[in-house]
Design a protein that fits this description.
The chain has a domain at 57-105. Helix 3 (58-75) packs antiparallel against helix 4 and helix 3 (58-75) packs across helix 5 (110-125). It is mainly α. It has helices spanning 2-18, 41-52, 58-75, 80-103, 110-125. It has five helices and no strands.
Length: 126
């Protein structure tokens, strides 16, 4: 393994001498690090990979849909039929989310609940 580290260092130093790291996006700016402290350790890598691929885990997608439906329901000024339909859809999404969390053993995870609350706050802000 030491040879691989040495080889990597040699390649990096060579690229620096050639100026290949100049004018990179974000050059001279602080790194924007993600705070993943609220994500359970065993989920961090998979969530990061999915995020980089532009995907959301189903439970987060369901939370986003629930937040959207809650906002629509709160803003609904039309007839009782539309409110009832929105309420029905919201109930279905919440039941699916509860079942999914139960199946994955996340319904009792305090860290996952805290992370979910952080996601909900961000969705409400956006």
């Amino acid at each position: 393994m030491a040879i691989m580290s040495w080889l990597a260092e040699q390649r990096i130093e060579e690229a620096m001498r050639k100026g290949e790291f100049r004018n990179l996006p974000g050059h001279g700016k602080p790194l924007e690090l993600e705070d993943l402290s609220g994500v359970p350790d065993d989920l961090r890598i998979s969530f990061k990979i999915m995020k980089n691929a532009g995907l959301l885990p189903e439970e987060l997608q369901l939370r986003a849909e629930c937040a959207t439906l809650e906002n629509l329901l709160a803003a609904c000024h039309s007839g009782a039929g539309e409110k009832r339909e929105l309420g029905r859809r919201l109930t279905e999404k919440k039941l699916r989310l509860e079942e999914l969390l139960r199946q994955r053993g996340l319904d009792g995870s305090a860290a996952f609940a805290q992370y979910g609350e952080q996601i909900r706050k961000r969705l409400d802000q956006g």
